[in-house]
Amino acid sequence: MTEVDLELVLLVDVSRSMSEDELELQRRGYAEALVSEDVFKAVQSGLLQTLALTYVEWAGSQQIVVDWQLIQTREDLDAFAEQLTVKFDPALRRTSISGALAFAADHIEYNTYRGLRRVIDISGDGPNNLGPLVTRARDATVAKGITINGLPLMTDDGAFSNFYLERLDIYYQTCVIGGPGAFVIPVYVWPDFADAVRRKLVLEIAGYAPRPVSSVHSPRRVTHGTVRWAKRFGVTFSRTGFGTPEPRPPS
Length: 251
Known about the structure:
Number of strands: 7
Order of helices and strands: EHHEEHHEHEHHHEE
Strand content: 15-25%
Largest sheet: 5 strands, mixed
Strand order of the largest sheet: 3-2-1-4-5
């Protein structure tokens, strides 16, 4: 196995709540951040000056956009970023954070690299609304020695603003992130997206965290966002996860 400073999964939300313009903004934002001088310097700051990087898009299912690649040079970062600017698929349905975390953890466990650190960088604009409870997926992932950092997208604009969840940053901090040095960097407006991604990548690659976060996870906060979503769209919900949509009476 190849030793690296960091195994990093970029886990990016492409659920139905994202417009096509926003999907393109995400891809281009990550590409812009990856080719920045700050990110390259962060790569160079490591003991081995090498990281393994992959880019995965998720909704109710997951799709590997760029599989694992070794990153050592500016050229490596440029080549990875270029692959993100090709044509992208339409948005998928639902938002299974728990499924995305389980997929990313397996993607790390079964690759051909051995990282001094292992990190999942997950972005999203809503709570878990499909599959098992997100806290179970988080705890199982952290138990494998993987840190989860969050990039909650708290923009309230466009045709899809009906999906907006207030205080998504608290939901991510309480229910989604975990592991040593885990942190959240929220995005409030789309023009700030690329800069937020750049800052987050630098912190993750260099092994820093902006500040400690609480290790206390409240079940009430875990279910608040998911129950609110379930009531709005008629989906059955229990403490173990989600069921099938309930039939609605004819209008």
